[in-house]
């Protein structure tokens, strides 16, 4: 048998250029991700007097408007014990989703100059917006925890543990949609208008300002469709973790939706994961022409 031709000294196995592993590339490029997050923070607060303090000011202002309009004028605080905590625990979670989706949709277009010049995993840009949004979310969460402690909340392990899957579900759902619309926005700038409409609806499509029994009475058998929304389940789990322990058992009929943990939490996790997989697939298919289209 003839022997194989010897490999030339100094040669290495050729690697096909441009192959992307999707979100796995982000894990390999953690240093680049860190740089992008720092850049996003610096750009966002350049010339700002308050800087990250806006992470507290804006949600507190939003909370004040909703509390006065719904809690005082419509007297929802009369039928919902500790309505202020009920309201704020939902607001900060929805704001987290809104910030990720809005900024990830613009992330590729906003970084067009960098994308034209060098190759780096395109997923880094939407994922960096998730980390920036998390940096804004945790100060708001600290305010919520402080309010709960003042209201008599004594956190248990399970209370804290329940908040984790709710946070992850929202992050995964928003990232999946952000990848999808971020890629589509390179080709069709109408995508930003579609996202704006989604964000306009999302606060009212989840039990942030109202309680779930109101929806059950209005929808009847179709209530299951409402509960299939991962944002609805995440907000209700946040209520279970932070709001219900402060009511001292006075939540009554406003307590847990039927099947929240044993049925709807796994369903919402599955829906969010499916959206992430779809978003990654769409992003990879469209990302090959980003530099040309931008």
TrEMBL record:
Q: Transmembrane ranges?
A: 60-76, 83-101, 130-153, 160-188, 224-243, 263-283
Q: Where in the cell is it found?
A: Cell inner membrane; Cell membrane
Where does this chain mainly localize? membrane
Keywords attached to this entry = Antibiotic resistance, Cell inner membrane, Cell membrane, Membrane, Transmembrane, Transmembrane helix, Transport
Entry-linked InterPro entries: ABC2_TM (IPR013525), ABC2_TM_bact-type (IPR047817), ABC_2_transport (IPR000412)
One of its Pfam families is ABC2_membrane
The membrane topology term of the UniProt record is: Multi-pass membrane protein
- Residue ranges occupied by any ABC transmembrane type-2 domain in the UniProt entry: 50-286
Question: What PROSITE patterns does this protein map onto?
Answer: ABC_TM2
What is the similarity comment for this entry? Answer: Belongs to the ABC-2 integral membrane protein family.
Protein name from the UniProt record: Transport permease protein
